[in-house]
């Protein structure tokens, strides 16, 4: 808490009245994103209440050394500057949006979020998805290996796989039901066709800021300086395709057809009041190897993450989305974000500004916090009954999944991530 400054002050308010008490974007948040509006090209903006401050128009009010990078239609160059520049920009934006002396100059630069179209914030060079949700790994493992749900390496190695950056899309992109090979356990041969076991995965995304040179690992004590911010991430998965194809090299077509993310980059600076301790390890767990020893006293994020579903029939009947999952992110993550970064680069792998990393599915130990339908329905054996009377083992055409995240702590103004939505279409 000693790292907090005046931009985190819970008494701070904005002259943008919708920001005061806003669920996601009070002045204590100030996330960056890329948007366009009618008659404009893509540009960088900052969310404030129900509005976006167009930083392309505001460059004359910003530090001269930052103007060029913030004038681009992507955030890569800006994120490469690292935490010092992010902190300086946050201080200036907080001043511009709280001090009424600037209102006459800044107010014409605001655009309603309802009038804007959001885009990917970065050109994503690489995307890696991890598997740090130990309860998810255990729940899934039990369905396939009841006697040994976790493989022997899980508590030694942060497991991950390289995904497909080209199919990462911003919230709202339709989820086209993918086709592939699938084989029932009692079938002699596979068949080809649309997936019958389409699923969501509730995850956090990590945006890389300043990268590292090829061959130069990032020490765990420096990992936080390479993290530009966070988003929500839905790693859509076809469980029937996945079960048939994943041996021996892991996920492929079951995962790479679409990954959805929320559009705003919520910075580490904004999340400082919400840092928490990591998941405690049991006495029987092995100690992390030296390069994975996280000395940060509060490496976790105090986020409540949730997933909701809205079916076509629910929307027609005026029913609100139904909550599928609700739980604490830190209670789901066996490995910290710092450990993810350190492990990813320990062999010399070079991360670059705008790279995206997923945490893996975040499921808690109790039934309220299961981050996928595969877990909720016990592999399809126990369908979920919705308020409309419909049942779901996996996603049907017309279903929309909505992910949210909220950071809350005593003595702090809560902030959110916005939404990550995806509607399944045939």
Structure characteristics:
SH3 type barrels; 25 strands; Fumarylacetoacetate hydrolase, domain 2; alpha+beta; 5-stranded antiparallel β-sheet; 7-stranded mixed β-sheet; 2 domains; single chain; 426 residues; 15% helix
Describe the structure.
With 426 residues, the protein is an alpha+beta fold. The chain folds into 2 domains: 6-119, Fumarylacetoacetase, N-terminal domain (SH3 type barrels); 127-425, Fumarylacetoacetate hydrolase, domain 2. It is built from 9 helices and 25 strands. It has helices spanning 67-70, 76-79, 83-98, 103-106, 134-144, 239-245, 312-316, 337-345, 373-376; strands at residues 32-37, 43-48, 51-54, 110-112, 116-119, 127-130, 160-162, 168-170, 175-176, 179-182, 191-194, 198-199, 202-208, 227-234, 237-238, 259-261, 275-276, 300-301, 303-310, 322-328, 356-358, 384-385, 391-392, 400-407, 415-425. Strands 7-6-21-13-14-16-8 form a 7-stranded mixed beta sheet, with no helix packed on it. The protein has a 5-stranded antiparallel beta sheet with strand order 4-3-2-1-5, with no helix packed on it. It has a 5-stranded mixed beta sheet with strand order 9-25-24-19-20. Strand 22 and strand 23 form a beta hairpin. The mean pLDDT is 96.
């Amino acid at each position: 808490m000693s790292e907090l400054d005046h931009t985190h002050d819970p008494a701070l308010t904005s002259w943008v009245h919708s920001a005061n008490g806003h669920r996601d974007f009070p002045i204590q948040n100030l996330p960056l994103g890329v948007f366009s509006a009618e008659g404009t090209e893509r540009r960088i903006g900052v969310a404030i209440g129900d509005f976006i401050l167009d930083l392309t128009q505001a460059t004359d009010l910003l530090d001269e050394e930052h103007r060029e990078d913030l004038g681009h239609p992507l955030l890569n160059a800006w994120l490469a500057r690292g935490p010092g520049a992010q902190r300086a920009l946050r201080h200036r934006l907080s001043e511009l949006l709280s001090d009424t002396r600037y209102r006459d100059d800044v107010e014409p630069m605001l655009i309603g979020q309802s009038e804007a179209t959001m885009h990917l914030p970065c050109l994503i060079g690489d995307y890696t998805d991890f598997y740090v949700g130990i309860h998810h790994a255990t729940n899934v493992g039990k369905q396939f290996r009841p006697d040994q749900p976790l493989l022997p390496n899980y508590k030694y190695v942060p497991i991950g796989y390289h995904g497909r950056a080209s199919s990462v899309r911003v919230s709202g992109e339709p989820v086209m039901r993918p086709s592939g090979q699938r084989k029932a356990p009692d079938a002699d041969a596979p068949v080809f066709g649309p997936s019958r076991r389409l699923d969501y995965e509730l995850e956090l995304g990590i945006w890389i800021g300043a990268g590292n040179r090829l061959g130069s690992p990032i020490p765990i004590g420096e990992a936080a300086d390479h993290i530009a911010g966070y988003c929500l991430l839905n790693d859509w998965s076809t469980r029937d395709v996945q079960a048939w194809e994943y041996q021996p090299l892991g996920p492929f077509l079951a995962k790479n057809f679409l990954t959805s993310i929320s559009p705003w980059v919520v910075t580490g600076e904004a999340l400082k009041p919400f840092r928490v301790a990591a998941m405690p390890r049991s006495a029987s767990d092995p100690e992390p190897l030296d390069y994975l020893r996280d000395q940060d006293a509060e490496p976790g994020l105090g986020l409540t993450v949730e997933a909701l579903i809205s079916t076509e029939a629910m929307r027609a009947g005026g029913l609100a989305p139904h909550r599928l999952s609700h739980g604490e992110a830190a209670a789901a993550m066996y490995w910290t974000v710092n450990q993810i970064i350190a492990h990813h680069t320990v062999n010399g792998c070079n991360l670059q500004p705008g790279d995206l990393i997923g945490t893996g599915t975040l499921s808690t130990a109790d039934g309220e916090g299961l981050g996928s339908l595969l877990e909720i329905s016990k592999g399809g054996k126990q369908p979920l009954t919705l308020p409309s009377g419909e049942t779901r083992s996996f996603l049907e055409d017309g279903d929309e999944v909505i992910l949210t995240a909220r950071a809350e702590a005593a003595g702090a103004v809560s902030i959110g991530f916005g939404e990550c939505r995806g509607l399944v279409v045939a």
